[in-house]
């Protein structure tokens, strides 16, 4: 069973755009609303997917994986920031083996 559709989007468009959309909807055996919703939804999913993913070439991928596998030692600035967070009670205990702090 399909969900009840309660939302509306009103828009203004040129006569040429309307004619183009009507023609495309007719060619795909869809109503104008069906065509616009399906087309806009597909495009929205593509845009969201592109913005949520990061495509790396092999060299960049290897750099990222190396940094994950062998993270650099924390510098003084990071240690001071962690100390401030510990003082504020955001983090509570020190993880001795990595010289980092563990979250609550």
What does this structure look like?
With 104 residues, the protein is mainly α. The chain folds into two domains: 15-52; 58-103, no CATH class. The protein is built from four helices and two strands. It has helices at 15-27, 32-52, 58-69, 76-87, and strands at residues 91-95, 100-103. It has a two-stranded antiparallel ribbon. A hairpin with a 4-residue loop joins strand 1 (91-95) and strand 2 (100-103). The longest helix has 21 residues, at 32-52. It is elongated, with a radius of gyration of 26 Å. The model has no long low-confidence stretch (mean pLDDT 86). Pfam families: TacA1 (PF08681). Keywords: Toxin-antitoxin system. This is Toxin-antitoxin system protein. Belongs to the TacA antitoxin family.
What's the total helix number? Answer: 4
Order of helices and strands: HHHHEE
Give the C-alpha Rg.
Answer: 26 Å
Roughly what fraction of the amino acids lie in strands?
5-15%
The main pleated sheet reads as: 2 strands, antiparallel
* Silhouette: elongated
Count all strands and give the number: 2
Low-confidence stretches: none
Termini Cα gap: 44 Å
Strand line-up of the largest beta sheet: 1-2
Estimate the helix proportion, in percent: 55-70%
* Number of structural domains: 2
Mean pLDDT: 86
> Helix/strand/pairing class, anyone?
mainly alpha
């Amino acid at each position: 069973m399909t969900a009840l559709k309660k939302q509306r989007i009103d828009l203004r468009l040129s006569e040429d755009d309307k004619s183009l959309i009507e023609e495309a909807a007719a060619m795909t055996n869809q109503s104008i609303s069906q065509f616009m919703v399906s087309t806009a939804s597909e495009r929205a999913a593509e845009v969201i997917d592109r913005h949520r993913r990061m495509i790396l070439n092999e060299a960049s991928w290897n750099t990222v994986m190396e940094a994950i596998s062998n993270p650099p030692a924390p510098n003084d600035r990071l240690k001071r920031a962690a100390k401030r967070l510990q003082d504020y009670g955001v983090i509570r205990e020190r993880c001795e083996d990595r010289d980092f702090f563990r979250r609550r």
